[in-house]
Amino acid sequence: MHIFYNQVHDFCTLMLAEIAGQMSKVPEPPASAGVALAFTEKFLLCPTLDSARECIQKDLPGALNFAMALDAANRRVANGLLALPRDLPPSQTRFYVLCSIVQEHLRSLRR
Fold this sequence. Notes:
Elements: H1 2-21, H2 33-43, H3 49-58, H4 60-78, H5 96-110
């Protein structure tokens, strides 16, 4: 559980810094599960905070949709409706658990 919330904290810190730096350019994206899922697949591959920051900068609309999906996924985790992964691979990227949870949430919307 701590891994998930540590990754949420790190993502939110990166997002806030990016939004503060681009306040006049921040788009008002329509909520899109497809856009969020596409961003999730790119963000999952980021091995460091620097690469995660670059990923957010390159796709701010995707990151904003990811943040909206993360909010919904977090509420489902808190209510026991979405489980955190139990078996984690020995090697994982920086945001593996966070992306796994968001992916599972987004996929459940399609069912």
